[in-house]
């Protein structure tokens, strides 16, 4: 599902224009991104939790050339699925 699909679904379910639905979706995504940028955890009940993990600097090899390169420390966004969705996914596979 893409962002445009989410927008279309919200517009259809709530009976609003796609322009209004797109503005809502954009604001939600922007709020999540800003919170992650500040280092905050974002928990959406029933969906899951977004967090920022710190990856330490390290040396690694370039797979094409085999040359060792230095990779600086960085922040990486992560997502942990909520129990409700995990249970829904596992119940469908049985």
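Sequence proposed for the structure above (94 residues):
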């Amino acid at each position: 599902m893409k962002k445009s699909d989410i927008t279309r679904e919200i517009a259809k379910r709530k009976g609003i224009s796609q322009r209004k639905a797109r503005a809502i979706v954009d604001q939600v995504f922007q709020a999540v991104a800003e919170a992650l940028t500040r280092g905050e955890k974002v928990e959406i009940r029933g969906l899951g939790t977004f967090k920022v993990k710190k990856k330490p600097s390290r040396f690694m090899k370039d797979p094409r050339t085999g040359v060792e390169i230095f990779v600086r420390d960085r922040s990486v966004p992560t997502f942990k699925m909520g129990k409700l969705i995990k249970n829904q996914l596992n119940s469908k596979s049985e």
